[in-house]
Amino acid sequence: MKNFAIRCCALSMTVFCLTAFIPVAYADPAEAMNSLSLGISSNPFVAVLLSFAFASIIALGVVQFLCRGRFKALYAERDALAAALDGRDAALQTPYVGVIGLITDNISDDESVLRYVSPSVSTLLRADAGRLQTIDDIAGYLAEGSAVTLGSAVRTLMAEGKSFSFAAEIRNGTRVLRVSGIPVEVGTGASPRAALALVDISEEVQSRAAAEEEARSRRRQNEDLLASINLQTTPFWRRDENLQIRFANIAADIIDLDSESARDTSRRARRLGAPYSESRFIVVDGERRLFEVTEAPSPDARGTVGWANDVTSLEEAQAEIARHIAAHEDVLEGLSTAIAVFGPDKRLKFFNSAFAELWQVDPAQLDADPTITEFLELLRELRRLPEQSDFRAYRDHWNGLFTRLIDPMEDFFFLPDDRTLRMVVMPHPFGGLFLTFEDVTDRLALERNYNTLNEVQRETIDNLAEGVVVFGADGRMTLSNPIFLSMWDLNPEFRDQSLHVSDVLDAMRPLFPPLEERDWDDYKQEFASRFADRVSEHGRTERPDGTALEYSFVPLPDGATLVNFLDVTDTLNVQRALQDRNEALETADRLKSEFIANVSYELRTPLNAIIGFAEMLDDGYVGDVSDKQREYLKAILESSGRLSALIGNIIDLASIEAGYLTLDPQELDVREVADAAILLIEERARSQGVEIEVNVDEAVSGIEADDRRLRQILFNLVSSALQFTAQGERINLSVRTQGDDILFSVMDDGSGVPDEMRNLIFEAFTGPDRGGRAQGPDLALPLVRRLVELHGGAMSVEPVEGAGLCIQCRLPRRAITPDSTTRPVGELIL
After folding, report:
1. Which residues are bridge partners to 438 per DSSP?
2. Which residues make beta-bridge pairs with 746?
3. CB 101 within 8 A of CB 114
C-alpha cells in the first residue's frame, strides 16, 4: 500500500509538471525562459508548487537509491519461492518421491488419517493405491523393524510435532526408502497435521556402500603400503612444505633427517623441480657404509619424498671391477701376444708392449689414442701393412667392422718384411673391437718342416721290413704300413679306414691258430687290454702256416700304442741249426775235457813212479851213479816235474771248465802271499841267473781271496815269465791299489809278444811261441786267467818299451764268488 501511495503522488506531480512545462517547451528557448519567469513571478502558488515538485523528485530519487538493495533481495526471494514451488510440483510428479499428508482424526487421536497420498507412493511400496488408507497400511509394506519405527515416529510426530527421518527397507524387494516426517502449522484449535515424504535412496545407499567399500579398500591399501614401507630395509620418508618430516619408515632411523644437510638436499630438489641425490657415509651397527640419499618433489608439489640406497656393495663392486680391470691390463701387458682394444669411438683405448714391439711403433704415438684410420695411416707410412691396391676401401672396411662385426674374424697378414701375422678381431663386450696379433712366421715354418718330416717318416715306415700298426687311445687304427697288410693278408683299403682293434683282429683271424668263438672273444679283449695297461711287451709267435713272427707293444707319448711284427722264420731256422751245432760242439768239448782229465789221472800214476825211482837213483839208494848218469837223472826229474805241473794245470783247467772247482775266500795279507809264492820259485830263478824283484805298495793291506789259488796265480805268472827270461835279466812283481781293486803286475825282460798275438796268450793249447825254454803249449797263463775270473777279476797284457812283456792281473778286494745259478755249459744265448 505504501508503495502504491508513493507511486500515485509521483504520478500526479509528474502530470502537473508536464502541464506546466509543455507549452514552454515548444516556444523559442529565450522566449520560453522569459515566459516561465513571468509566470512564476506573477503566480506564487506555482512557484511553491514547482519547488515542492522538485523536492519530491529529489526525495523519490534518494528513496529509490536507498531501497535498491531491498528491492533486489525481494526479487531474489520471489524467484526462490517460485523455484521451490516448481520443485515441489516436480517432486510430486517424480516416481522416486512420494508425499503423504496426515491429519489426526478428532474422534481417535491414535489413528492418523491419510489426507493425501501421491501416486508415486504405491509405486515405491509396490502396493495397490486403494489399499493405502492409514499409516498402518503403509507400515505393512515395510520390513518388520522399519514398520515398528514408522508407527512410533508418526505417533510422536502427531502428538509432539517432532520431526523424524530414517531409512527403511520394503518387505518384498531390495529397495531402500528414506522416510521423513515434519509437522504442518495449523491454526489454534485445529487438528494436528503433518507431511510424510518417501524417497527412493537405493542407488544412494549402493553408491554410499560402494564408496565406503572403496574407502575401506583404499585405507587397507594405505595401511598395507605403510606396513610394506616400514618393512623395507631402504630408508623412506616424506616432508611437508615446511621441510618437516610427515612420515618415515623404521629403516630411516639410521639417518639424521632433521640435520641441516638433509634439509638442504630437500631444498635443492624443490628448487630444481627434479630428484637430487648426494652420497653420504652413515655408521650402521658400528660399520661405516655409503648411502646415496635422494630427495624428489612430491606429486602434490607441497613437499618432498626421500629415500636412501645402500651403495656400499656397489662401491665395493666398482672398486673390485676397477681392480680386476687393472689386473687384466697387467696380465695382458705381460702376454707375448700383441693385444689392442679400440673403443666405440674408434679410438685406441689399450695396447700392450708386445703390440708396440710387433708393429715397431713408438709407444708415445699410441698413447695419443689415435683412431683406427690414423693408426692404419701410420702403419702405411712405416710400411708395416700388406700392400693394398685400394687403401681407401681397405680403411673403410676396418671402420665398417665397428658396426657389422658379430662373430670373431680371423685373417693373416703377409708383411713386406716377410713376416706372417695371425690376426683375430672380435667385438668387445663394452663396444668397439678387440684385436690380437701373433707372429706365426716360425710356426708356419715349423709346420712345413713337420709336414715334411711326417712325409719322410711315412715313407720310412712304408719301406720298413717290419709290419707296423698304430692304435690310438680309443682303440682305432691310425697308422699302418704295406708290410703289415701283406703280412696278414689284409685289404690295402684298411689303411684309409679307422677300424677298431676288434675289427682288425677279425680280419687277421684266418692266420691265427683255430679258436672257439668264446675263446676268440676272450683273446680279443685280452689283446685290447694291453693298450690300457701301456706296458712294453715283446714276444714271439708261430702261425699255423709255419711263419714265425716277433711282436712288440710299445706305448707312445700321445696315448697311442705301436705294434710291430717281424718275420723271423729264416732267422729262427738258422738259430735252430746253430743251436744244434753248438750243442754238438759243447758235447765234444765236454768229452775232450773228460778225456784229458782221465788221461791226466792215468798219466800221473806212472809219472809219480818214474819221479820216485829217479829220485831213489839220484840219492844213491841202489848204489853210486856216475856223473853222466846223474846228469841223465836230473834231466829225467826236470822233465817229470814239468810234466807233473802240466798235468796239474790240465786237471785244474778241466775242473774249472766242468764247474767243479770252488774257492775258499778268506782275509789274506798280500805281502805274505807274494813272498810265499816267490819262495817256491826263487831257487829255480837263482839257478837260471834271473833276479826277481817284489814291490808291494804301502797302501795295499789285505785282500779277500782263496789263499792256495792266489799263490798259484802269482807262482804261475812268475814261472811263465821265468821261462822266457834269459840269464842276467830281471822279473818285477809289483802290487798296488787302483780304486777298489788290487793290481798285480809281472814284467819281464824277455822277447815279448807281437800285438796281433796278445789276445791268444791266455788261450789253452793255442798260445803263441815266445821262443823260450819250454817246448809245447804253456797252460800256466790260461789257468791263471780262469782262476782270476773265478775271483771276479780280469787279465790284460800291457805293452812295454823295448823288449819284454807286462801281464796285469786285477782282483777285487772282496772276492766275488760265482752265483749258484750259473748258466750250464750247453745253454745258448742269443
Report:
1. 422
2. 733, 807
3. yes
Q: What are the tens digits of pLDDT across the range 132-146? A: 778 888 888 888 888
CB count, 10 Å around CB of 545?
Answer: 8
What's the CA gap between 287 and 697, in Å, rounded?
89
Q: Which residues pair with 669 in a beta bridge?
A: 702
Q: In whole angstroms, give the CA distance from residue 724 to residue 299.
A: 136
pTM of the model: 0.34
Least confident range from 122-131, 351-360, 773-782: namely 773-782
Give yes or no for a contact between 155 and 162, defined as CB atoms under 8 angstroms apart. Answer: no
Do you know the residue count of the chain?
830
Strands 730-738 and 691-696: parallel
Lowest mean pLDDT among 156-170, 263-277, 616-630: 616-630
C-alpha pair distances (Å), 418 with each of 98, 438, 440, 441, 549: 113, 14, 11, 8, 53
Provide the pLDDT for residue 107: 40
pLDDT of residue 772 exceeding 80, the answer is no
Instruction: Give me the amino acid identity at 512.
Output: F
Question: Would the pLDDT of 830 be above 50?
Answer: no
Residues forming a β-bridge with 178: 167, 199
Contact 446, 427 (CB under 8 A): no
- Distance CA(392)–CA(373), nearest Å, equals 10
Burial annotation 770-798 (CB, 10 A radius, 16+ → b, else e)? bebebeeebbbbbbbbbbbebbbbebebe
Beta strands (DSSP E) in 429-483 are: 433-439, 467-471, 477-480
**434-447 core/surface letters (b: 16 or more CB in 10 A; e: else):** bbbbbbbbeeeeee
Pairing mode of beta strands 304-310, 287-297 = antiparallel
DSSP states of 219-239 as a string?
Answer: HHHHHHHHHHHHH-SS-EEEE
Which band of pLDDT confidence, cut at 50, 70 and 90, is reported for residue 108?
Answer: very low
Task: For 212-263, write each residue's pLDDT tens digit.
Answer: 888 888 888 888 888 887 777 788 888 888 888 888 888 888 888 888 888 8
